[in-house]
User: Fold this.
Amino acid sequence: MNPKERKEKLAAIKESLSRGLMSDGFVKNVCNVFFRFNDCGSVLRDEVYYGSLFHGLEFELLSLDGQYFAGSHEHAEALLEYYGGRIYRSEYCHLAQDPRELWIWEKDILPENRGEHGTNLKPMEYDEAVRVLFDIV
Assistant:
């Protein structure tokens, strides 16, 4: 894939992931890693698995307010080491017709950090998450 095709695919993925955002939500990416904030809820594992197949480019996704990640083992380990929580291999994607090594990292939102409608009052910060995943801390 040439750089122009890759750029087009990344833009299409970003557009797809931007659907269903709240008014102050956003999607940003660094290479193939996308960071999403304040969406209306979704199954990230499915978005990453089926989205990668649909767009023809594997990508990873971190929900900053949901404290949930679907992607590489290396990035899941980095999140675990810095933020705590737990990681596990997504058996669904491993056993699918088009298998992909996909790891999940998740961390429960503490009760004192939950808003009235279950929102996270203390979401992860974008810049900090980028530093953690790309070993800049």
In short: The chain has a mean pLDDT of 90.
